[in-house]
Structures are given as structure tokens and as C-alpha cells.
């Protein structure tokens, strides 16, 4: 919906600042040369309300109107608009692998100098291999190397029993991705960051012993009945519920899901949840490992303008990131190193924020970082593997064959994914 400047509030703000002998860009209100900015993002409902509150602050400060378009189908909407030549000024996408494709096609504007590099550690500023420019910036972060349970539970009592784990592969459009999270995290915890990064950047084959071990660890942990049930189960649980963890019909106690689960899965029962680090509880993980898998939402620029650059700089600044974290009713975790755990009012959220800052290494979600054709087949092969866990070699050979068939000139890998 279009966002309008607030002239009266803006005038009062400017007068107050003038009395303090300070200056703020845009205090003169919109000028004849200013243009509005359109931004496409995945957030709706409460998340959208919190984000639009930030956009209100930006408009009040600069006089630049922002047209926010929120849709959970932002990938499909963005692709359609880019192909039609009507791309938004800015777009927020969770997959750097997808953004690398847009950068290769010269659909993205370089963003060098917009973010303070001292505020964003690796891997948040990952680039396409061979590129010197930055083409996307993180506006939100999530921790994925965690296992959820109800507060007060003793997860170690259930960890070795596959029947006590909540596992569902179903989703609206992309079935299988929860299984990719399992395999990615198991590989990271078993084999470490060097192996993980080589695999995600296309340098380690799917058929390698390390990757095969991660698949068989997961497949060997699930029972045949559990694998079949996962194929038929939506990861969000029944409609209108609060996730599999709180579904009496699911009868499970542990769930491997990212930090976004408190908002998108557990809903009104989020305050009843707690978590363990996956290195301490996933099958055959090394409990001493302090490597964490993460994901993010990244903003990229498709139409260059000074107004769009101002909005991008505003969104990734430490002040805005801190305000968003402190004011949102739903948790908003930041990749900005100057946003401390103290910005979060809930102890569970503070622990998540602490891990994002203090882990020995962070590695981007593998399927998010891979080229889309590889990602899509990865998710498909998860489902095939669950249907026949004894056929792992065929699954991995198919994935490697697909990867080898891609034209290097038409395929974008990231240069690194861990840091």
C-alpha cells in the first residue's frame, strides 16, 4: 500500500531540529526532484505492520514516499515483474543464490558503500564468485542450528528416539525444504565449515563421503513409518493450530526448525517454547562444535535512484535494525553486529541473538545459497529419499549429474558462505 509523508509532523520535527541547530536530510519536505520508492518483501500481517512502521519513520525523516508490496509469493512476483520490465526499486529475497542469478543477468545495481562493513561480518556480505561488488544486504537474520521443545521439557530424554521428533515435509509451494535443513545442519556439525563451504559453493561433489554420511545419518535415524509420515505431514501442523510441537495428534517433543518458528509456526504458544543447539542434540553431531547454520532476508536494488539508496542505507543502519528489533511484536533478529542481545525482551530471543554474534562460525543455509536449479532438485530428492531411504547413491548421483550438466556461463555460485 502507498505510504504518504506526514507534512505536519515533518514540519514540527524540522522546526525542533532547527532550534537545536542540527540538520536532517529531507527536512524541507519533498522536493520537486524526489521520487517515491517501491519495495517488494515477503512480510504480511504483524510482520508487515512492524516493517511499515519503519517506513513511516523513513518518510517522516526524508519526505520520500515508499510504496510497500508485501506477499509471501515474492519470488514468483519478482521474477514476473523483472521479466515484464516492471521490477520494483527494491526487493527483499531470502535466497542469495537466487540473487546471484539476478546479478549475473545484470538486473541488480551494485551497492558498494551503502552498508558499514564494520557492522556486518562474514558471511552476511557474501558475493557471487568472481564479483568484486556487493549486490545485496541483509535486513533480517535467523538461526537454523537449533531444536525446539516445550519449556521445562528434558530434551535429552527424547533425542535418541526418532518417534519423538516432529518432522513434516509439506509446504504450500516448496515441499522438502525442511529435510534439506536437516541434512545441511548434520553435515555442518559432523564435518565442519571447510567441507560445508566447499559443498555449498559447488566444489565438493554430492557423492563425497562427507555429504553421503550426512544423508545416511538422517535417513538411518528416521524409521520407515516416520519417513512415510513426514512425506504426508505439513511442517506447520494442522490448519489453525500452533505447529506440530503442540499438536496432540503429532505426539512429538522435538523439532528442528529455524528461529522463525516462533512467529510462523508456534504463533500464540511461542512463549511456551525453548531450544537446544543442534550440535548438542542432532544424531551423530559433535557437541563441541560451535558452527551455526543461518539464513537471512536480503534487500537488493533493481532500479537505481538516490531515494532508493537512502532507503537501503536506512534499513541496514544499526539504529534502524535496533529499533526494528526492539519495537516489533514478533522477533526480528539482526545480522548487524552493533545490535546486541539486550535489544530483545525475551530470554529465548536473547539467546538466539547471542548465538548469531558469538558462534565460532556462521554458515549460510546451503539450499538458499545454491543456484536455483540445484536447490529445486535438492528439495525434490529429499522427498524421493524419504520414499526409499535405501537408495541414497542414486539420489546423490542424480544431484551430481544435474549439477555437472549446468552451463558454467549460465550458473552463479557464491564465493563463500561461512565466516
Descriptive keywords:
419 residues; alpha/beta; D-Maltodextrin-Binding Protein, domain 2; 6-stranded mixed beta sheet; 10 strands; 40% helix; globular; disordered N terminus
Please characterize this protein's 3D structure.
This protein has helices spanning 7-19, 45-62, 74-84, 96-104, 177-200, 209-221, 224-232, 261-264, 306-316, 318-327, 347-358, 366-369, 372-387, 392-405; strands at 37-41, 66-70, 90-93, 137-143, 146-150, 165-166, 254-256, 273-277, 291-301, 361-364. The chain is α/β, with parallel strands linked by helices. The chain folds into two domains: 7-142 and 296-357, Periplasmic binding protein-like II (D-Maltodextrin-Binding Protein, domain 2), CATH 3.40.190.10; 143-293 and 364-410, Periplasmic binding protein-like II (D-Maltodextrin-Binding Protein, domain 2, 3-Layer(aba) Sandwich). The strands form two sheets. Strands 1, 2, 3, 4, 9 and 10 form a six-stranded mixed sheet that branches. The protein has a four-stranded mixed sheet with strand order 6-7-5-8. The longest helix has 24 residues, at 177-200. The relative contact order is 0.18.
Amino acid at each position: 500500500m502507498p505510504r504518504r509523508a506526514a507534512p505536519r509532523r515533518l514540519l514540527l520535527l524540522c522546526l525542533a531540529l532547527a532550534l537545536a541547530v542540527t540538520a536532517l536530510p529531507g527536512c524541507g519536505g519533498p522536493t520537486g526532484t524526489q521520487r517515491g520508492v517501491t519495495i517488494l518483501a515477503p512480510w504480511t500481517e504483524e510482520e508487515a505492520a512492524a516493517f511499515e512502521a519503519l517506513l513511516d519513520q523513513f518518510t517522516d525523516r526524508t519526505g520520500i514516499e515508499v510504496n510497500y508490496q508485501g506477499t509471501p509469493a515474492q519470488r514468483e512476483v519478482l521474477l514476473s515483474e523483472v521479466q515484464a520490465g516492471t521490477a520494483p526499486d527494491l526487493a527483499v529475497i531470502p535466497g542469495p543464490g537466487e540473487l546471484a542469478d539476478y546479478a549475473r543477468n545484470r538486473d541488480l545495481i551494485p551497492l558498494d558503500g551503502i552498508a558499514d562493513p564494520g557492522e556486518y561480518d562474514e558471511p552476511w556480505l557474501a558475493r557471487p564468485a568472481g564479483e568484486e561488488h556487493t549486490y545485496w544486504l541483509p535486513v533480517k537474520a535467523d538461526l537454523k542450528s537449533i531444536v525446539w521443545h516445550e519449556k521445562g521439557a528434558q530434551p535429552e530424554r527424547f533425542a535418541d528416539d526418532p518417534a519423538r521428533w516432529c518432522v513434516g515435509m509439506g509446504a504450500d509451494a516448496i515441499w522438502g525444504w525442511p529435510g534439506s535443513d536437516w541434512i545441511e545442519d548434520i553435515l555442518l556439525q559432523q564435518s565442519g565449515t571447510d567441507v560445508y563451504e566447499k559443498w555449498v559453493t559447488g566444489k565438493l561433489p554430492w557423492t563425497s563421503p562427507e555429504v553421503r554420511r550426512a544423508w545416511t545419518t538422517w535417513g538411518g535415524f528416521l524409521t520407515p513409518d516416520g519417513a512415510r509420515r513426514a512425506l504426508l505431514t505439513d511442517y506447520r501442523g494442522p490448519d489453525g493450530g500452533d505447529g506440530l510441537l503442540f499438536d496432540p495428534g503429532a505426539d512429538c517433543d522435538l523439532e528442528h526448525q529455524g528461529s522463525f518458528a516462533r512467529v510462523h509456526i508456534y504463533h500464540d504458544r511461542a512463549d511456551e517454547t525453548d531450544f537446544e543447539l543442534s550440535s548438542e542434540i542432532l544424531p551423530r553431531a559433535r557437541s563441541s562444535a560451535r558452527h551455526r547454520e543461518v539464513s537471512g532476508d536480503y534487500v537488493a536494488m533493481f532500479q537505481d535512484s538516490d531515494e532508493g539508496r537512502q532507503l537501503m542505507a536506512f534499513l541496514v543502519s544499526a539504529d534502524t535494525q535496533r529499533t526494528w528489533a526492539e519495537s516489533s511484536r514478533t522477533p526480528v533478529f539482526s545480522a548487524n553486529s552493533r545490535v546486541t542481545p539486550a535489544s530483545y525482551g525475551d530470554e529465548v530471543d536473547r539467546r538466539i541473538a547471542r548465538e548469531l554474534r558469538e558462534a565460532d562460525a556462521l554458515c549460510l543455509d546451503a539450499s538458499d545459497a545454491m543456484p536455483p536449479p540445484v536447490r529445486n532438485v535438492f528439495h525434490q530428492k529429499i522427498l524421493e529419499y524419504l520414499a526409499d531411504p535405501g537408495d541414497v547413491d542414486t539420489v546423490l548421483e542424480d544431484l551430481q549429474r544435474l549439477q555437472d550438466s549446468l552451463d558454467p556461463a549460465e550458473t552463479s555460485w557464491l564465493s563463500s558462505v561461512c565466516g
